[in-house]
Structure formats: C-alpha cells, structure tokens
Amino acid sequence: MKKLIAIISVLAAGFIGTAKADITMSAGQSLEVQSSGDVTNVSIGGSLGFAFSQDLGNGVTVSMSGLTFDNDVAVVDNIVGTADTANTTANVNVVGAVTVNAVVNQVNLVTANVVTGGGASNKGIDGDAFEQISFASANGTLTYGADVEVDYADTGVGDVSGSDLTAVGLASSDSAIALGGTTGNGISYSTSVGGTALKIGYLFASGAGAADLFDSSADANNSTVAISTAVPVGPLSATIGYTAASAPAGDTNTIGVSTSMAVGSGTLSASYVSVDGTTDSTEMGFAYTAAMGSATLSIGYQQADTDGQDNTNQTSARISQSVGTGASVFAEMINLSGGTGTTLAGETSSIVLGSAFTF
User: Fold this and answer.
1) Domain extents for the chain?
2) Strands, E, within 234-339: which ranges?
3) What is the DSSP letter of 110?
4) How far are the Cα atoms of 258, 307, 349 from residue 225, in angstroms, in the given order?
5) pLDDT score for 31
6) Distance CA 331, CA 166 (A)
7) What's the pLDDT at 218?
8) Residues 159, 260: contact at Cβ < 8 Å?
9) What does pTM read for this prediction?
10) Which of 273, 256, 244 is nearest to 182 (CA)?
11) Which of 25, 152, 170, 197 is most buried, judged by most C-beta within 10 A?
12) Is residue 315 a contact partner of residue 301, using CB atoms and an 8 Å limit?
C-alpha cells in the first residue's frame, strides 16, 4: 500500500483555492487451487483499489473509496456486470414483409450482435464506486451512501477460511442463519465512550442497496435498524450486536454475542447468534488463532440450527506463512457434517492451497 499526495486545483462556482487529498492505492495478486472430491479448480486473479481522504482543516477528515477491482470466483472475468445478449434472432429476408424484416434487422444490430463466440462480457465495473462518504472527527465517524452494511449482529467466529474458492461446489446447508436486509441505502455512526465502542446504523431501503434513487416513504421498503457495542470485561473482550430488519414478508430480529480472550500464545473466541424471523435459527461458533513463528494457525468450529431442519456442523482450519514483505502462502480446509441440503448437489469437504501478494 502506497500513499500519493495529489494537489487538485478547484476553480469553479466561486471556489478558488488549492485542495490537498491523500490518495491511497492498494493492489494484490493471488493464485489458488482447490481440491474438492473429483474436482480441481484454479483461480488466478488480482485486485486494485483507490481510496481518497482529505483534512478539512477544522478537525474533520473526509474519506471516500471507489474503483475497486477484485478477484471474484463467482463472476465471469472477475468483474461484476450485466452479460450481453447473444445473437439468437434470425436475419431472414421475407418477400412482401419489408417492415417486419427492417424491425428484425434493427433488433439484431442494436441488441443482439454484441457478443460473439458464445461468451459473456460485462458492461458494469464496480457500480458502487464513490457511493459512500465518511466524516471522521474526535467524536466519531459518520458514513452515508448506498451499499452501507449494518450486519452488526453477525458475530459468528467459527469460520476461519479466508478464500472465496473454499466454498465453491460445497453442498448447501440445511441450517443457516439469515439476518434479513443488512445492506442498502442508509447511514451509520461509530464512536467510543470511555472504553466502550458503539456503532449505530439505519437503512432507509435494504435489499436493493445499489439503487441511487428510491422512494423513502414507499410501503414496500425493507428498512433496518442496527446497534453494536464492544465492552472490555476483565481479560475478555465482549461484543453485542442487534439488528431489526423490517419487510412486507415479515420482520427479522437478530442478536449476536461474541467474546475473546488470550489463551497461551493465541486468542480463543466464541460467539452465539439468534435469529427470530419467519423461520428461527441459532448459530454458535468457536475459534482459536495462534502464532507459530512467522506463521499463523487458525482452527474454527461452527454449528447452525434452523427450526425444522437438521443441524449443520462446520469445521475449518487455515495456516498462513509469510514469505516476504507483502507475500504469503496459505493452506485451508473446510468440512461439513450433519444436515447438508439435497436440493443442490455438492461435496462436503474442500482443501485450498494458495499464494497472495499485496503491494
């Protein structure tokens, strides 16, 4: 990660002066190989991101992130977008049907003849870029915009895997928690009072959070209120989160609690999440992370219980070894047992080996 100081001259709308912004750039590259059953998947990708911040000179610092390109194993070409439509309309000349044929030609020209070779291309690149802005002061940080996340009650610690490739091809779980809408157009505020950290969030409309325009008074809006607090309790660090998501189909209330403490040369964590909604669910998890020389080892266990479904148990482990500044190699595994859904076929275990470089 490197910082560049850019001087931007502003001469518009009566503003004459010089503004100085810190531009933070980050980049990375990864190579990952997954083995799951008889399938071997390879993922090669990179990331590039930009963030901007500026001191207003009055004790407030404004920051904004945008233009993040990242490796996503679930997206064609690793960039989220809308696939173009392949040419499937016949371009046939019919005697005596000049008007109809002209319309068909126009459809082929404008809509269909965009992609050749049967592949999908992506028109959109990071549609949420620059849609959030934060104001940080001595009193706290205020953030507003689209795609704001308020999943404060999701305190689960039992999954220690870090690669998106690890879960590819795995069976769906019979039991799993669902917090309701936790991303959308909204506002959040975080501060600290004494030794207690506090976060408050509100979404005007969740679910379709990427929308830049919405009716805040619409009856069909899915609004969400969330609050989280972190309190030190002796040798423990405890976090409590609450999320209340409202929707026409029914409200979802979630509370999550997590705690951690130093044990030996590492940290032991535990969590419990309870979801009260159309279908009730609970999840408990445990994780232990320890340093082994320049390597880091993490082991986690998680169990989910949804009403009317079998419990799902998940065990995961990850070891990461530094091989230089900004470079590391890692190995991780995940195993599912108990209830694993039969609707989607899939394996119950996966192993991933990979390397990562950050700049």
Assistant:
1) 26-48+141-358
2) 236-245, 252-263, 266-276, 281-292, 295-306, 312-324, 327-338
3) I
4) 20, 25, 36
5) 92
6) 10
7) 64
8) no
9) 0.76
10) 244
11) 152
12) yes
